[in-house]
Amino acid sequence: MKVSQEAQQMIDASAHKNQLKEMIAYTNQLMKEYNIEATELQWTILINHLNEMIRREKSQERIPQVDPEMFAEVSAEALSIAEAVTRKIGELPIDEKYVLSIHFESAKQN
Questions:
Q1: Rg of the chain over CA atoms, in angstroms?
Q2: What does the pLDDT look like over 19-66, one tens digit per residue?
């Protein structure tokens, strides 16, 4: 996994730096288990998303509800990774899983 300078700056500036680093490592491990490799740009976007998810979990902020049917084409692997990551972060609504799954589905296409 190669982290861009921009992604490293996000990590360094995060209010939850240690948890973010832990979640990046956990996510990377899950992706390896499914043989999914993200590009540097995909990692930068994913790290930003993970950081925002952690922030929302801490503040108990909620994203708008999504229709699970919109994610019908997302693979079981991408949904599985997203579910594990969402669960590990903490008390987040199921909507977060669906939105996060897009990152893994996109990286799967590489």
A1: 13
A2: 999 999 999 999 999 999 999 999 999 999 999 999 999 999 999 999
Is this structure's pTM higher than 0.70?
yes
Secondary structure of the chain as H, E, C letters: CCCCHHHHHHHHHCCCHHHHHHHHHHHHHHHHHCCCCCCHHHHHHHHHHHHHHHHHHHHCCCCCCCCHHHHCCCCHHHHHHHHHHHHHHCCCCHHHHHHHHHHHHHHHCC
The per-residue pLDDT for 40 is: 96
